Each structure stands twice: as structure tokens, then as C-alpha cells.
């Protein structure tokens, strides 16, 4: 298992457009595996390649123990509006309610480059939109009002010094703390029934 460093708010890679994947390689397959391992260790439900310092158009998601790899995903349909609390592995411990499309249709390729289509609503729909945003240099903060964005930045200013090189390293100590926090959440709702995005 290889755990990757997670780029945090302020890292230029998080604001860059990704490059489409033209061919699957053994190196990219390993990247997908490492992304899943990193996401699980960080107690997240989604992770995009820019968050681990890569420029490929790849994201991984796992809700209800159903891992999904998205290669070159595109949202082809949006409908309705809904609000849900979101966080981000690249902006730890900061959560805000975000308004997005209530339902989306996403077309992508799987890890074998076969075409796949997902109808996403509720938490899954929000997660799809959140991760695809990452692939185009957007963060959930961009969907907030100016006042809420300023509040988020004030909160981030209080902890950004913990990441002087703009990297979040999943050390054994960090993983143990995240596990303890996740165990507390499990007392109320199991991780695979989580209602927020992070």
C-alpha cells in the first residue's frame, strides 16, 4: 500500500486544468490503486488526481463500499438544485453547505478504458460534481457566497501553517487520529451512510 501526499489549498496544482487520459498504462493503474489507498486512509469518499499532485483526468469515489474509477469524466446532464454540506481532503476540517445540481448524468471511462455512465443524485451526485470540479481546477469554496468564502479562508488561515509545504502527509499519527474521529462518527452514522462530502 502506497499512501500519497495530499496537496492542500494554495498548491498551484489544485487550480490547473487536467489532461485527458489517452491510454491506460501500468503506471496509471498503480496511481489509481494508490489513490484509493490514500482516500481510505484519509477517511474520504472521493479523491481526484490533482489532489495528489498529478495532472491526469482521473478521480476515484467509494460510497457504500462500491469503488468507482472515473477516467475523463464529463457531466452530460444537470437538473434541479440541492444543498449539502461538503468538505475536502485538500481543505481539512472545513465544511460548508454547497448548492449544486440535484441530479447529474456522468459519462466516463473505467480503469480498462471501457465507457461507463452514471446517474448521480443525493450524496453520489454531489460527490461526482465535487470530484469533477477538481479535474477542472475548481474547489467547493468556489461555490460559496463571498461572505462564506471569506469565513472559510479565515478558518483556513488558522491551520494553514500546519502545511508549510502545502502538503498533507498521512503519517501513522495522522491516520490514527483520523480513525479515532471516524469511529466517533460511526456511533451516529456508519461511514458508508455518511451524508456529507469530504
Regarding quaternary structure, what we see is: single chain
The helix count comes to 4
Q: Tell me the number of structural domains.
A: 1
Query: Could you list the spans in which at least 5 consecutive residues all have pLDDT below 50?
Result: 191-195
Q: How many β-strand runs?
A: 9
* CATH level-four homologous superfamily name: Peptide deformylase
Task: Give the SSE string.
Answer: EHEEEEEEEHHEH
Could you explain the architecture of this structure?
The chain is an alpha+beta fold and 198 residues long. It has four helices and nine strands, in the order βαβββββββααβα. The protein has a single domain, classed as Peptide deformylase (Peptide Deformylase), CATH 3.90.45. Helices cover 28% and strands 29% of the residues. The strands form three sheets. It has a five-stranded antiparallel sheet with strand order 2-3-4-7-8, sandwiched between helices. The longest helix is centred in the N-terminal third of the chain and has 16 residues. The protein is globular and about 45 Å long. About 3% of the residues have low confidence.
Please provide a brief summary of the model:
The chain has 198 residues and is an alpha+beta fold.
Sequence-ordered SSE layout with sheet pairings:
Blueprint: E1 6-7, H1 26-41, E2 46-48, E3 58-63, E4 66-79, E5 82-88, E6 91-100, E7 103-109, E8 115-121, H2 122-134, H3 146-157, E9 167-168, H4 172-186
Amino acid at each position: 500500500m502506497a499512501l500519497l501526499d495530499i496537496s492542500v489549498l494554495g498548491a498551484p496544482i489544485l487550480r490547473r486544468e487536467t489532461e485527458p487520459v489517452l491510454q491506460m498504462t501500468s503506471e496509471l493503474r498503480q496511481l489509481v490503486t494508490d489513490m484509493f489507498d490514500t482516500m481510505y486512509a484519509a477517511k474520504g469518499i472521493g479523491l481526484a488526481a490533482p489532489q495528489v499532485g498529478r495532472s491526469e483526468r482521473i478521480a476515484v469515489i467509494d460510497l457504500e463500499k462500491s469503488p468507482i474509477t472515473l477516467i475523463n469524466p464529463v457531466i452530460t446532464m444537470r437538473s434541479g438544485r440541492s444543498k449539502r454540506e461538503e468538505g475536502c481532503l485538500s481543505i481539512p476540517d472545513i465544511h460548508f453547505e454547497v448548492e449544486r445540481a440535484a441530479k447529474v448524468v456522468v459519462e466516463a471511462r473505467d480503469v480498462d478504458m471501457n465507457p461507463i455512465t452514471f446517474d448521480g443524485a443525493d450524496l453520489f451526485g454531489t460527490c461526482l460534481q465535487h470530484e469533477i470540479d477538481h479535474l477542472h481546477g475548481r474547489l467547493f469554496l468556489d461555490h460559496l457566497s463571498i461572505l462564506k468564502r471569506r469565513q472559510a479562508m479565515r478558518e483556513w488561515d488558522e491551520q494553514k501553517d500546519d502545511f508549510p509545504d502545502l502538503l498533507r502527509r498521512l503519517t501513522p499519527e495522522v491516520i490514527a487520529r483520523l480513525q479515532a474521529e471516524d469511529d466517533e462518527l460511526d456511533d451516529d452514522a456508519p461511514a458508508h451512510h455518511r451524508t456529507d462530502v469530504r
